[in-house]
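Re: weekly structure request thread

Next one in the queue (170 aa):
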Amino acid sequence: MAVRNPFLPRRRDEAGLTLMELMIAGVVAAIVLLAVITMYITSMQAWDRAGARLALQRNAALAMDKVLFDVRHGSHVEIGAGSTSMTIYRATVAGDSTLAVYQLVGDELRNQHGVALVDRVTSLVFTSGNGFKVEVEMSLEDDLGTSAQQADDATIYMESAAVCRNQSLY
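Done, posted below.
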């Protein structure tokens, strides 16, 4: 049996693929499939990290909105020692009543009922020069990927201010 030269055109009676052609096609298909799977896994990891960052930012924004909403409906505030707690008062005919209390407990921002508005808080600072205008600075951090790699961590920093609008008319 004579060996056919692979560079010469095939005759009509030689239909099909050679073993070498099948092996080369299989290796090329495996490389393409491996590249597609790698891209899929990488994109899913990026999707998960982006979703976790979005959730962290959304939770921080909701907590900030709740605090500032109560400040705007109060008549004055008192900032606690360490600037990590704040009491919001509302003036009434009978005198001042407590409208809301916010404080940093561990890594959670909690209200007067002990309900955590947001967790993973790394820093929280309430400031007020006159007891009416309040500035809030808050940082949150989440370890989204591996704990050994800081490049995949998300840090959210928010700052805002509000003014007590419910001034006493009495």
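The chain has one domain: 19-163. Residues 126 and 136 are 5 Å apart (CA to CA).
Next request, please.
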